[in-house]
Write a structure and sequence with these properties.
The protein has about 450 residues and is of the alpha/beta class. It folds into four domains: about 5-40 and about 205-355, MoaB/Mog-like domain (Molybdenum Cofactor Biosythetic Enzyme, Chain A, 3-Layer(aba) Sandwich); about 55-65 and about 170-205, Molybdopterin biosynthesis moea protein, domain 2, CATH 3.90.105; about 70-165, Molybdopterin biosynthesis moea protein, domain 3 (Molybdopterin biosynthesis moeA protein, domain 3), CATH 2.170.190.11; about 365-435, Beta Barrel (Beta-clip). It is built from seven helices and 28 strands. Strand 20 (about 315-320) and strand 21 (about 325-330) form a beta hairpin. The relative contact order is 0.14. Bound molecules: adenosine monophosphate and magnesium ion. The site of adenosine monophosphate has 19 residues, from helix 3.
C-alpha cells in the first residue's frame, strides 16, 4: 500500500498566509498564491525554443552588425566624384572591373573611372564610396534591360552622393553594446536579433512543468468508449492547453478515482515530477469529494471561498518533493468553466512569475458598452463570457450564451470576460463595463481605452 504520511511540507505549514479568513477577494487570493512562487533557474536553450521566455543575462554584441559596410541596392559601386554632373543626356562612362554577389569580398580596389557591379548585401569594395542603383544606369534603359554580368562599361545617369545606398558597418548594433538587458522577454523580433548576432542558444528562465490531475469516478479519458453515467475529462485538456499557451509545460496525469489511495498516489506522482501541481474538482461539498480530505490529512492547506463567479471554492498549499524542493498546489473547482477561469486568474500569474515575467501576466482591459443585461445576484465578482465587437470607437460586448459553470461552449465562443463588480446587481444594456481581452497575446490596443491593471 501507498504510504500516506505527510506529503505536504510540515516545515511550510506554519505559514499562516495560506490559511486566510473564510471569504477572500480575487486579488487577496492571487497575492497569497504568488508569494509561494519564485522564478525558475536559468537554462541555455536553442533560441527558437525561447519564444516568450525571459533572458537571464545581458546580451552583448560581439561584433558589428552588419559586420561590413554593404550595399542596400543592386547597382554599381563607384567613386561619387566620378559621377559629378552625370545626367541621362550626358551620362558618365565607367569601366566595370568586377562583379560582386552578396557573401563575397572584392579583392581589388576601385580607382577613378572604375565601377564594380554589386548585389544587395555585398560588402562595399575598397575605394568605392557610393552605390548607383541599376535604375540610374544604362543597364535599366529600355534597349538593354538584360542583366549582363559580362558588362565591361556602364553609363551612369545620375550624380551620386557620397555614401549613397551604403549601409555602414555597425549601423544596427555596434560591437560591445548591450543589445538586450537581462530580463528581456523574447518575442519573434528579439529572436531574430539573437540569430543575427550568430547566437544559437540563449540563457532564459526554465519553463515550469505543471502537473494536471483530474479527479472523479465519473471521468473518462477522451478516446475511451463511452459508458453510461460517465462524462469525458475536459478539465485536464483545457487546463493543459492554458498551461501551454501561458508558457508552461503541461503534464497530464492519470485520472484519480474518488478514493484516498488513488488520489494520494497520483498527487505524489505529480509532486515528484513537476514544479507546480494543479488538481480539479473535489474542493466543494460532496459525498465523494476526497481531495479536501486527502490534502487536509497530508498537511495544512488553505481552502478558500473566493468572492468570484464562476469558481468560488479554491484550495492552495505547498507540497515538498523527496529532494526537499517545494511544489505549490492549486486545487481548482471541478466545473469546467470554473476550472478554466480560476486558472486564468490564478494560474497564469504563477506561470509568468516562474518564467521571470511577473509584471507581464495582466491581460489588456478595455471599457466596453454592454448590449445585453448581465445579471449578478449573489454579491461576488462575476466574470461573464462575452464576445467583443471592436469595429466602433467604443467597443461593445454581447453574452456568448448560458453562463452557468458547466457550459463550455459559451466559454469557447468568448473572446473576453466582462467584469461585473460584486456590488453591482446588473449591468444594463447601454452600461459600460470593464472587459478582459483573453484572446490577445500582445497588449496592443488603442491607448485611449486600454488600461493595464493587475487587480481584475
Ligand atoms: P466536484 O467538484 O467533484 O463536485 O465536480 C463539480 C462538477 O464538475 C461535476 O459536475 C463534475 O462532474 C464536473 N467535473 C469534475 N471534474 C471534471 C473534469 N475533469 N472534466 C469535466 N467535468 C468535470
Ligand atoms: Mg467530484
Amino acid at each position: 500500500m501507498e504510504n500516506t504520511s505527510s506529503t505536504y511540507s510540515s516545515s511550510t505549514t506554519g505559514n499562516r498566509s495560506i490559511l486566510p479568513a473564510d471569504m477572500i477577494s480575487v486579488q487577496e487570493a492571487r497575492n497569497l498564491i504568488l508569494e509561494k512562487f519564485t522564478q525558475l533557474e536559468s537554462v541555455s536553450i536553442p533560441i527558437i525554443e525561447a519564444i516568450n521566455q525571459v533572458t537571464t543575462e545581458d546580451v552583448i554584441a560581439q561584433f558589428d552588425i552588419p559586420p561590413h559596410a554593404n550595399t542596400g541596392m543592386d547597382g554599381y559601386a563607384v567613386i561619387a566624384e566620378d559621377t559629378k554632373d552625370a545626367s541621362y543626356s550626358q551620362p558618365k562612362k565607367l569601366s566595370v572591373i568586377g562583379y560582386l554577389p552578396a557573401g563575397q569580398i572584392f579583392d581589388g580596389s576601385v580607382r577613378s573611372g572604375q565601377a564594380v557591379r554589386i548585389m544587395t548585401g555585398a560588402p562595399i569594395p575598397n575605394g568605392a564610396n557610393a552605390i548607383v542603383p541599376f535604375e540610374e544606369t544604362d543597364e535599366y534603359r529600355e534597349e538593354i534591360r538584360t542583366n549582363n554580368t559580362e558588362k565591361t562599361e556602364v553609363l551612369i545617369d545620375v550624380e551620386a552622393m557620397t555614401g549613397a545606398n551604403i549601409r555602414p558597418a555597425g549601423e544596427d548594433m555596434k560591437k560591445g553594446t548591450t543589445v538586450f538587458r537581462k530580463g528581456t522577454i523574447l518575442g519573434p523580433a528579439q529572436i531574430a536579433v539573437l540569430a543575427s548576432l550568430g547566437l544559437n542558444n540563449i540563457s532564459v528562465h526554465r519553463r515550469p512543468i505543471v502537473a494536471v490531475l483530474s479527479t472523479g469516478d465519473e471521468l473518462l479519458s477522451p478516446g475511451e468508449s463511452y459508458r453510461n453515467g460517465k462524462i469525458y475529462d475536459s478539465n485536464s485538456f483545457g487546463l493543459a492547453a492554458q498551461i501551454k499557451s501561458f508558457g508552461g509545460i503541461p503534464k497530464i496525469l492519470n485520472i484519480a478515482k474518488d478514493n484516498v489511495a488513488s488520489l494520494t498516489h497520483l498527487i505524489r506522482e505529480g509532486v515528484e515530477n513537476a514544479d507546480f501541481l494543479i488538481t480539479s474538482a473535489g474542493v466543494s461539498r460532496g459525498d465523494f469529494d476526497l481531495v479536501k480530505t486527502v490534502l487536509a490529512e497530508e498537511g495544512q492547506v488553505g481552502f478558500w471561498t473566493v468572492k468570484m463567479k464562476p469558481g468560488k471554492p479554491l484550495a492552495f498549499g505547498v507540497f515538498t518533493k523527496k529532494s526537499g524542493t517545494q511544489v505549490p498546489h492549486l486545487g481548482l473547482p471541478g466545473n469546467p468553466v470554473s476550472a478554466m477561469l480560476t486558472f486564468e486568474l490564478f494560474g497564469r500569474p504563477t506561470i509568468f512569475k516562474m518564467l521571470g515575467k511577473i509584471n507581464a501576466w495582466p491581460r489588456p482591459l478595455v471599457s466596453a458598452i454592454s448590449k445585453d443585461k448581465i445579471i449578478n445576484t449573489d454579491g461576488r465578482r462575476f466574470y461573464a463570457r462575452v464576445v467583443i465587437d471592436e469595429t466602433n470607437v467604443v467597443p461593445t460586448i454581447s453574452l456568448t450564451g448560458k453562463q452557468s459553470s458547466g457550459i463550455l461552449t459559451s466559454m469557447a465562443k468568448a473572446t473576453a470576460f466582462a467584469i461585473c463588480p460584486s456590488n453591482v446587481k446588473a449591468i444594463e444594456p447601454g452600461d459600460s463595463c470593464e472587459v478582459i481581452l483573453i484572446d490577445r497575446e500582445n497588449n496592443y490596443y488603442g491607448e485611449a481605452i486600454l488600461t493595464q491593471k493587475n487587480d481584475y
